[in-house]
Amino acid sequence: MIDQVKVTDSIYYVGVNDRTKPLFENLWTLPHGVAYNSYLIIDEKVTLIDTVDICYSEQFFRQIERILGDRPIDYLIIDHMEPDHSGSIGMLKRKYPNISIIGNKLTFKMLNEYYDFSDNLITVKEGDTLNIGSRELSFIMAPMVHWPEVMFTFDPKDKVLFSADAFGSFGTLDGNIFDHATNLDVFMNEMERYYACIVGKYGKFVQKVLKKFDSLDIKTICSTHGPIWTDFAFKPTFDVYDRLSRYEAQKGAVVLYGSMYGNTAILADHVARGIGSCGVKDVVCYDVSRADPSHILRDVFRYRALVIGSPTYSDNVYPPITNILNLIKIREVSDRIMGLFGSCSWAGQAVRKLATFPEEMKWELVGDPLEIKGAPCEEELHKGYELGKLIGNRLTELYPNGEK
Length: 404
Fold this sequence. Notes:
- The protein has helices at residues 57-68, 83-86, 89-95, 105-115, 184-199, 203-211, 234-245, 263-276, 293-302, 319-330, 350-354, 356-361, 378-398; strands spanning 11-13, 16-18, 23-24, 28-29, 34-36, 39-42, 46-49, 75-77, 100-103, 121-123, 129-131, 136-141, 151-155, 160-162, 220-222, 250-257, 283-287, 303-313, 316-317, 337-344, 364-365, 370-373.
- The protein is α/β, with parallel strands linked by helices.
- The strands form five sheets. Strands 16, 17, 18, 19, 20, 21 and 22 form a seven-stranded mixed beta sheet that branches. A six-stranded mixed beta sheet has the order 1-6-7-8-9-10.
- It starts with 10 loop residues before the first strand and ends in a 6-residue tail after the last helix.
- The mean pLDDT is 95.
């Protein structure tokens, strides 16, 4: 007999691991895979919290059957309608035709649009409750974290909050589902990357939801991705979401460059060394043509300074640079400092056009943008180093105690 995975005596984990999908949302790399978490509450009524990606529905239903046998599921609570969590709803409905589905008005609008369901629906709003026997589940609306229909479900009896994608992370759950029983080094790093890529634009909405935690007595957080959070590590997890949703950055710099023939790359190294010469330890350099965009976004959220270097390409900014700047713009990252440099062969345009970006983002531009023609000479390399020093010194002013 296979042991069941329990969150509490009455709450079972029925999620799955996906180690085959190369890209999340067909955009973001998954070097450590991803978990789709779903939970089953056994009480007088049986309640399922979300489903999983349809590709894993067979494994999902097999796990449920091991727990329930022939007993039906009474309620499905949809906390989030994104297909990696709602994908198995159609098959669930066919398997349990009398199931009642719990969601809010926006949930059911999407449910109809995705799966053409309109029967046995129970609409809930902020503060509504559902009695399933010995426990009274309550519902907390969390719009735009990170879809408009998102809500959380709270079980006050076991003090468990089902938080949809909030506090989620990339990475499969290998060996154990709890924070205290797994190596969190990968998950904490992947949580920042997940936030930057998936939730990043909606910081003000995250802040609104985090304030609701003050009135809840929470012991366990069950997200739809990543580990289950307990007192062991929930505080640093909460702090990550709080910090990132306020766009609060650490002392450090991202030097991002494009280079066709190596000249902008050489200049980038000197800029980075100038920053480092001021005692800034966290300086990361990315070649935009080779780097993973999700790692770049993670570090743009993580560090206060962004320095962009671009060659002129067809009288414009180097296209991969334009792409990553658009991704940053979409996420509405605020309160950063920026430096600019670049190169050209005959007619410089990239640096001039890049100069509009900090204006648009309301970021602080540090130093004068630097542009060279052809290969950099010693004087131009020195100017790159000095630009880096200006950025490093500005970071030191912003973090006078050396704090992260």
